[in-house]
Amino acid sequence: MLFSKNLIRWYIENKRDLPWRRTNDPYKVWLSEIMLQQTRVAQGMPYYLKFINAFPTVFDLARASEEEVLKLWQGLGYYSRARNLQKAAKYVAEELDGNFPNTYKGLLSLKGVGDYTASAVASICFKEPVAVVDGNVFRVLSRVFGIATPINSTEGKKQFGELAQKLIDKKNPSDHNQALMEFGALQCTPQKPDCLSCPFSSGCIAFNQNRIAELPVKLKKQKIKKRHFNYLVFLSDDGETLVQQRRGKGIWEGLYEFPLVETTAEIGQADLVEEEAYREYAQQSSEEVVLFNETPVVHKLSHQHIHTKFWIVNCENLPSEGVSVKELNKYPVPVLIENFIDTFDF
Asked: Is 262 annotated as catalytic?
């Protein structure tokens, strides 16, 4: 109980003034929690404000098209979050008359809502004493209590979950959970934590045993996959280009891109035009192919690095129906494509 009291006292004195903290509306809290997964507050804030402005209620979000949602989400990454967000909104609006489930177990029934988000919304909006456990919480608890069990192991998740639940203030779970997350974000940071002003420094095992850099422990990540993308940027004489929507369950599902030729290694122009995928798109002998970037753009995702070349294909007419280059900014695209569009002088 002393841990929670000290934590909440710190929170009252140091918490940031964030828009989702000024409300207990489950729609707004849920939206913020989904957006801030794997996203820094500074990066997520503009997106949150754009979404609330465009979709002030869960009914507005439910009525939006997937493309509208993906376009507003563009740049946040992990696009499955956006698709699940809208599926959950449709369910709440159409099946629950706009009322979010008011329990941890009920919230878990929503698409894209896992243990962390359900705990956050249940405790903040409905005062249910269920502990949140995210990266910040893992770090704080592992250091203060000197726990070396890997946080991404089954044993570790169970151990930290049980400890977090044991520590929670059952009378004030909302402030407790928000305080613990905020403490990890501002005070007990991954690098150079402010231990000298920490309210737990006298009893913190990591601090007193000089193990700050060692904790938390995390098992090594999976091997990073290397992929080679060659985008064909067609430009016709009448100012049109080709774009296509990504299908399937891979990266960037539902987003748009230029015609893609993926290869097993980096290739030059002579090899590109011999690729079967290239010949499927390029059907005119008069086409002129020019490499835009000599050095591949490396786009890093959590589990793969994408090495990308953009090939400008000048032609009199497009091989299929195109879109005006002036309309490109209306399509939801990956950041990789967005950056190219911003850089290339269409």
From this structure: no
